Amino acid sequence: MTEQQWVTVLGASGSIGQSTLDVIARNSERYKVYALTANTQLEKLLEQCLIHQPVYAVMRDEDSAERLRQRLKAQGSDIKVLGGEEALCQVAAAPQVDAVMAAIVGAAGLPPTLAAVKEGKRVLLANKEALVMAGRLFMDAVKIHKAVLLPIDSEHNAIYQCMPVDYSRGLANVGVRKILLTASGGPFRRTPLTELAAVTPEQACAHPNWSMGRKISVDSATMMNKGLELVEACWLFDARPEQVEVVIHPQSIIHSMVEYLDGSVLAQLGNPDMRTPIAYGLAWPERIDSGVSSLDIIATARLDFEAPDLQRFPCLRLASEAISAGGTAMVTLNAANEVAVEAFLQRQLGFTQIADVVEGVLSQATNTEPCDLAVVEKADQDARVIAQEIIAQQTVNT
Ligand code: NDP
Ligand code: MG
Question: In a structure prediction context, what are the per-residue pLDDT tens digits for the chain, which is 398 residues long?
Fold first, then answer.
């Protein structure tokens, strides 16, 4: 029997975090939980702590950490509770830890994910924003510290599964012609364009195929998610943007494809359930049970494909432009998008104004070379300030 592995789950209270704990519980002879983290969701983390008995529980919010400490103490638990960002990095980098699930949403996930990379951990990367913001620094750190980086985003996990093992020699050297990055098109693929402005957060979060956190659900509805994933694919597989083609595939059964020079196209298929890539990342190169039901290909019956409509999905166009612009443009786009999506979820901004805010911020922000993390952090902060100003202005005007 293989030795039990210690796992830290960053963002345990979220959608990916919960799915990760489900897979771990199914394979408890292989994995034990070192740390669970959340931001403010006290009840959720408390419940998870009592079930999974981690060594540490960390809450980003210090007040929530103090309340969790009291609650666990009242239950007679000896789980150690820490608070703050530094503690997130600490449980990601601890010497005992074998694998870290990076499932915090947004830019906040970058420091602890990078801390895990710098300790050469097996890093299961769901937090795509970390790679979008600091791609070069992140991938360099993976190489230098010999971290094992396993993509959890379903598309990138599929691409990884379809790639030859030695793909890091360069796509051209291993006979790969291009990557086909699939997208469901979200809930508004067929909605009349004139109705998009009035879309509510509830409608935007009701994804037809996937059950996910609110931020990524909105990103899927605007297709900003696919823009972020385009950059993610370029960094993970050292691909040029023109080697990655976005294809709408509404059934979300094929999770992405890789085309080879000889005309072969390899695809990874499965039910749309994140436990498949999570189980793959945990056990790689072995396979374990994920709890995902068998794909009923007869019931699926058909697989459709179409090209994305950039008029309907301006966020995808903006992401492609930011990739071409290089420098800190993607940091700016990511931060502006995070602020705009939050404002939309708080009903301070209309759905179609998300793209307007991102475009406005990109046109005002200074583009610099992301040579170190301080530059990345400054570009992120500057973009947030500009985004808030634009949103305040829009609110005054409406
Ligand atoms: P959720 O919103 O469901 O969960 C986010 C997690 O991050 C929660 O544990 C939350 O804590 C925590 N968190 C939020 N803000 C902070 C912060 N400032 N500091 C520390 N922790 C924080 O998100 P998802 O699980 O849907 O997504 C997580 C990541 O995985 C995202 O980057 C997303 O793009 C990516 N991903 C998700 C997929 C999915 O199917 N859900 C698919 C592919 C990628 P709390 O609960 O306390 O707020
Ligand atoms: Mg994805």
Answer: 568 999 999 999 999 999 999 999 999 999 999 999 999 999 999 999 999 999 999 999 999 999 999 999 999 999 999 999 999 999 999 999 999 999 999 999 999 999 999 999 999 999 999 999 999 999 999 999 999 999 999 999 999 999 999 999 999 999 999 999 999 999 999 999 999 999 999 999 999 998 999 999 999 999 999 999 999 999 999 999 999 999 999 999 999 999 999 999 999 999 999 999 999 999 999 999 999 999 999 999 999 999 999 999 999 999 999 999 999 999 999 999 999 999 999 999 999 999 999 999 999 999 999 999 999 999 999 999 999 999 999 876 65
What's the predicted TM-score (pTM) here?
0.97
Please tell me if the CB atom of residue 284 comes closer than 6 angstroms to any atom of ligand 1: no
Asked whether the beta carbons of 368 and 327 are under 8 A apart, the reply is yes
Topology classification of domain 5-151 = Rossmann fold (3.40.50)
Span 326-398 CATH architecture: Orthogonal Bundle (1.10)
- Please give the Cα distance from 388 to 365 (Å, whole number): 13
Identity (one letter) of the amino acid at 19? S
- As residues whose CB is below 5 A from the ion ligand 2, the structure lists 153-155
What residues does each domain of the chain span? 5-151, 326-398
Look at ligand 1, atom 9, and give the residue with the nearest C-alpha.
11
What's the rounded Cα separation, in Å, for the pair 235 and 17?
A: 24
The residue whose CA has the least distance to atom 43 of ligand 1 is 153
